[in-house]
Design brief:
Largest sheet: none
Shape: globular
Order of helices and strands: HHHHHHHHHHHHHH
Distance between the termini: 12 Å
Mean pLDDT: 91
Helix content: 55-70%
Radius of gyration: 20 Å
Low-confidence stretches: 1-6
Length: 373
């Protein structure tokens, strides 16, 4: 039976890779975190123009948050039995602790929103997704993908249907369901959970996931760009909702609704393509860094340290933003945030182990007692 109890707070102190931990997953999580920081403070372009290298950093738009959400599903899977989730009564303990973790993440997210930085905070949606994952912890990988596909199909319709509810919404309201639509992001979490259930540790599985993720993403973007090219005025589109553009015909609007390749459009193509990219990135990171020896562990350590404490690093960068006299928005600002995050995470993990907010969350989850033997 899998033991899903949290590790002691100091379990990772001075250790490159704790036993059983996939360092590649931490590296992928760091990539997602640093990508989201780039969208917040990096001064990156609104869209990618492959003929202009100066815009290439715009790949972080939409894809960083989707990678973060897929990794949420992977983390849930890895901490709930990996390929074989436990049965009763252990699964009840896992579900209870996941629910507490969800509430804690929502609470942290609401506190960060109260700082009133001009950043759309993902954590409240993230916590709700943890709650929605509770009932499906024992669902098999293939059925998780079916559910994810259903969410992808419903994603643009639900996103469009919720728009009227936010007609007079302020910054608080749009962060609670519009910018990060729950149905859309639930698809990502389900994909990540399926990835964990499929056996991410196996080398052959990593190659399959890398290849299939890349192929799915390429095909989805080819279809989207052929059938629903992004409108010229899409820069004015609101993140998280479909956009048809001025003067679109009915058929063009319908194509944009379901097939738009625009980042953060909640279309089927957007969800499928960004899911594929996320799976490929996770598989590549595990393929490169896990089981490759001490040299690979040392190379990965700076990013893995960041990825091992995502709640702390994410919250920390927003707290710093709130403290600055002026909002930064440049490549230099991103480098300072990235360097500071890596330095903090390496130092904390080396001397203290688990991140402070991760430590607090783990302590709260222990309120759910172990089942009696």
């Amino acid at each position: 039976m899998t033991d899903a109890r949290p590790a002691p707070p100091t379990a990772m102190r001075g250790v490159l890779v704790p036993a059983g931990r996939l360092q590649g997953v931490d590296v992928a999580r760091a990539i997602a975190l640093l990508g989201m920081m780039a969208t917040h403070v990096g001064g990156i372009a609104d869209a990618v123009d492959w003929s202009d290298p100066g815009t290439w950093a715009a790949v972080a738009h939409g894809r960083s948050s989707s990678l973060f959400a897929v990794l949420a599903g992977v983390s849930i899977g890895l901490t709930s039995g990996r390929t074989t989730p436990p049965g009763p009564p252990a699964i009840g303990r896992v579900r209870g602790r996941l629910a507490i973790r969800a509430v804690a993440v929502v609470a942290v997210g609401l506190l960060l929103m109260a700082l009133q930085t001009p950043v759309y905070v993902i954590l409240p949606t993230y916590g709700v997704l943890f709650l929605l994952a509770v009932p499906v912890l024992r669902v098999r990988a293939r059925w998780l993908l079916v559910l994810a596909g259903l969410c992808a199909v419903l994603s643009p319709v639900v996103a469009l249907a919720t728009v009227p509810l936010y007609a007079d919404a302020g910054m608080w309201e749009v962060q609670l369901g519009l910018v990060y639509p729950v149905v859309t992001f639930l698809a990502y979490v389900l994909v990540g959970l399926a990835v964990a259930r499929s056996g991410l540790e196996a080398r052959g599985r990593q190659v399959v996931l890398l290849t299939s993720g890349a192929v799915v993403a390429v095909v989805a973007y080819l279809v989207g760009n052929a059938l629903a090219p992004v409108p010229d005025d899409a820069a004015s589109a609101f993140p998280g909702v479909p956009y048809a553009g001025e003067g679109s015909t009915g058929s063009e609007a319908l194509a944009q609704l379901f097939l738009s390749p625009r980042d953060h459009s909640s279309s089927i193509v957007d969800v499928v393509a960004t899911s594929g990219i996320a799976v490929a990135v996770i598989a590549l990171c595990t393929l490169v860094f896990d089981g490759r020896g001490r040299t690979a562990e040392r190379i990965a350590f700076p990013l893995a340290a960041v990825g091992s404490m995502p709640l702390t690093v994410y919250a920390g960068h927003l707290v710093v933003l709130a403290m600055l006299p002026e909002y930064p928005d440049s490549g230099a600002a991103w480098w300072w945030f990235a360097f500071g995050s890596v330095l903090f995470a390496m130092t904390w993990r080396t001397f203290l182990g688990r991140g402070p907010l991760e430590r607090l969350t783990a302590r709260l989850t222990r309120l759910v007692p172990d089942p009696r033997a």
